[in-house]
Write a structure and sequence with these properties.
- The protein is of the alpha/beta class.
- Helices cover about 40% and strands about 15% of the residues.
- The chain has a five-stranded mixed β-sheet, with helices on both faces.
- The longest helix is centred in the N-terminal third of the chain and has 20 residues.
- The radius of gyration is 14 Å and the shape is globular.
- Bound molecules: zinc ion.
- The site of zinc ion has 7 residues, from helix 2 and helix 4.
């Protein structure tokens, strides 16, 4: 797969952050994801969080699988503000998406949310989920340069 330049990594994660902000403006939890074409540049789709069983990444992975063949998705990248949970990592795996790029780690979010009833963080790193599969999924993240940007909309959100 075509490597992503540092500049692309930061730019795409910031765009995912804008999708998260949009979700928050729609009274949803501030998480956002993008699907990148094999060129690592074209954004094929954007998805914000919907609810606790329709996270941004799993919803986007289902949309991707419904619209693109597996051989194509194997060259695509799912970009997300936070490390995908086990549900989303599983859906990304089954959709056949080849690469995941995330900004900040689940554990950094847990430190903010505590044991919030709407975000009972499922602590299972996505790399561990993918390692159990038969197909390799490349993972990039966390990205220190954007962690504060990814966490910004969450500051205060979970204490409302
Ligand atoms: Zn998830």
């Amino acid at each position: 797969m075509k490597p992503l330049a540092d500049e692309q990594i930061v730019r795409h994660l910031r765009r995912a952050g804008a999708v998260a902000e949009r979700a928050m403006a729609m009274a949803r939890h501030p998480f956002g994801a993008l699907l990148l074409a094999p060129d690592g540049e074209t954004v094929l789709a954007e998805q914000g969080n919907i609810d606790t069983v329709n996270h941004a990444e799993s919803t986007l992975a289902r949309t991707a699988a419904a619209n693109y063949p597996g051989a194509y998705l194997a060259q695509c990248t799912l970009v997300t503000t936070f490390e995908p949970c086990a549900m989303c990592a599983g859906t990304i795996y089954w959709a056949g998406i080849g690469r995941v790029l995330y900004g900040a780690q689940e554990s950094q979010l847990l430190a903010l949310t505590g044991s919030h009833p709407e975000n009972p963080t499922l602590s299972l790193p996505c790399r561990e989920v993918f390692a159990r599969g038969q197909r390799a999924v490349e993972v990039i993240g966390p990205v220190a340069a954007v962690c504060d940007d990814m966490l910004a909309p969450h500051q205060g959100f979970w204490r409302r």
